[in-house]
Amino acid sequence: MKFTAGQIAELLNGKVEGNEEAIVRNVSKIEEGKPETLTFLANSKYNHYIYTTKAEVVIVNDSFVAEKEINSTLIRVPNAYEALAQLLEMYEQSQPQKTGIEQPSFVSDSASLGDFVYVGAFAYIGDNVTIGDNVKIYPQAYIGDNVKIGDNTTVYSGVKVYKNCAIGASCTIHAGAVIGSDGFGFAPNTNNEYKKVAQIGNVILHDHVEIGANTTVDRATMGSTVIEKGVKLDNLIQIAHNVEVGENTVIAAQTGIAGSTKLGKDCMIGGQVGIAGHINLANGTKAGAQTGISKTIKKEDTVLFGSPHLEIGDFHRSYVVFRRLPQLKAQLDELIKKSKA
Question: Where in the numbering of this chain does the UDP-3-O-[3-hydroxymyristoyl] glucosamine N-acyltransferase non-repeat region domain appear (predicted)?
Fold first, then answer.
């Protein structure tokens, strides 16, 4: 690719400071910037790199104030990170798009495929599957019977979508993800053995959902496990049966959510968080990495940390105490020793 700073600024509705004819042929990280590359600065922790980077053009926030001379051309926008995402999406969409059905693959005669669909080699499309326009099913994916997939959705290699599940439009499901596997349902009998409870529900992914690599979303025992519009799930996440995840919630890697729990809208869940079953999290709940959430959170926009969880203010106050426990114990031992003297 080859663009000028002026052309990029026009695409982003940004303002150029410097050479409008500066040439960009690639992208780079700001700390590794090279001539004729584009980079961005959105986090103030990286401000010092802008004075040494060799990148030709840097996208910055309107609010950025330079403390000394900068050699690169700047493009000022309201939100540098969002602008870069917009630019990369434009680049991605400009790339050649695959269409057609590769062989060998299996597509049931009863399946319905929209226009400009791509089905990769060794993929399996089951009975009564409905696939919308511009959908991409990459090699070795499995799409079970009666599955519905909306327009512009991408299913990467090795994804398994079990029967009766529904996937919305403009979703992305990354390699190795499993949608609709059985929920973990077993009932103990009189012989202290566990008998499997049939899982007859499904999974519903609404529009604009992204599922990370090797993430699992279990089907409901009855009804549906529901991932609402705009939810983003990282890699290696476990979503149990009958869970509901509210709109625009984001969840980081290695989080596990137990059965029948409901997350509200706009929640932010850090990595390795554990969430117990049959509880509710209010809209806007935020949980730091490795938080263990065991009870319902009723107050919106609550920030949690620790295991078992505490509100962030309580956690910080508690941390002041328990980080000093060895010292406090030594003082207590000394007091006990003196009291016995």
Answer: 23-89
